[in-house]
Amino acid sequence: MYPDRVVSGMRPTGAMHLGHYHGALKNWVKMQSELPCLFFVADWHALTTHYDDPSIIETSTWDMVVDWLAAGIDPAQATLFIQSRVPEHAELHLLLSMATPLGWLERVPTYKDQQEKLADRDLATYGFLGYPLLQAADVLIYRASLVPVGEDQIPHIEMMRELARRFNHLYGKEKGFEEKAQEAIKKLGSKRARMYTELRTEFQEQGKADALEQAKAMLDEAQNLSMIDRERLFGYLEGSRKLILVEPQVRLTEASRLPGLDGQKMSKSYGNSIALREDKDTVTKKIRTMPTDPARVRRTDPGEPEKCPVWRLHQVYSDDTTKEWVLKGCRSAGIGCLECKQPVVDAVLKEQEPMRERAQKYLDDPSLVRAIVADGCDKARKLAQETMRDVREAMGLGYTSV
Ligand code: TRP
Ligand code: SF4
């Protein structure tokens, strides 16, 4: 009933590195050409953990947008915006909070995990407890169908789905809904009306998911229905409520295959990362000074690639011939470590070249970035306002809409 739409956000807590690119960003770049996408800087989310040190948020926000553009996010295809510039997210967060059981928030695994992990911060705050609720508002406000995120975020998406279901259940009631739905069925014409009723029964009595899908597809094609009747019939399929908010699905982002310079997960806090747009000399130096198999003390000592973090980079960046050359050369001491690292240096620089190029335009003229974001915020806000009109009305606040 509502168009397919992708929503995802990232917190501006520091510069992006190649691990982010090989994990999330590459996936975003791919999705932008498949479906309408909204990507945003989750600056309020950054404040939930960094409320006592907000100084890095502003610079990180703009750097991050430049990183996205550098990575190939195309503002002509995707909508890029900043969370705090679409204040409707906060309004929905507040309204959702009214009926959100505390236990749902307390039980989200990231709540306790992060508190333990970031023990140097006091995260026993109201804002931090509400983190997943704000995230739910970010997504539900666009009636998004898909949310590309990493595995750690799955519980958050599950909670969003429950919130949407609960919201529709509580506020999707309409006086005389059943009668109105029956009226709308008649408007389908007798053949379709019969099919609709049969499929609905199959789904409700036997839980057949394909019957539900088939009925939805039929409604999508039915042309002589008004928006409101269509909405009723979608809601009536699954129960006796209007669907005001949509339950989104996860699109799992594969974990980055790119390890850090020391073989551990790439992370800025481990000091083992390469920034997305790091300058060439630094990249070259970082790779040339990477640790290797500790058994190779002298050039003449044979080594074992399986014990070397450089080999892990070859597995991401090199073709079979090069990999063969590494395996043989290392184990026979036929090649030296610097020699072995050179193809990795070349491949990383080559990968970054178009990124540096694309970024240059925006670094030379930052007003371009502001314009892209301003335009994205306008677009996002229009969509958010549409949903909020329905939400307010459903919650008895219709008089606040003009
Ligand atoms: N919590 C997400 C993360 O840490 C960031 C985020 C905030 C987000 N709002 C979102 C992701 C909405 C997807 C959709 O990665
Ligand atoms: Fe690592 Fe390559 Fe040196 Fe072998 S030759 S230890 S794989 S850097």
Walk me through this protein's architecture.
With 402 residues, the chain is mainly α. It has 18 helices and five strands. The strands form two sheets. It has a three-stranded parallel β-sheet with strand order 1-2-3. Helix 1 links the parallel strand 1 and strand 2. The protein is elongated. Helix 3 crosses helix 17 and helix 10 crosses helix 13. It folds into three domains: 206 residues, HUPs (Rossmann fold); 62 residues, no CATH class; 88 residues, Tyrosyl-Transfer RNA Synthetase, CATH 1.10.240.10. Bound molecules: tryptophan (TRP) and iron/sulfur cluster (SF4). The site of iron/sulfur cluster has 14 residues, from helix 15, helix 16 and helix 17. GO terms for molecular function: ATP binding; tryptophan-tRNA ligase activity. It comes from Noviherbaspirillum saxi.
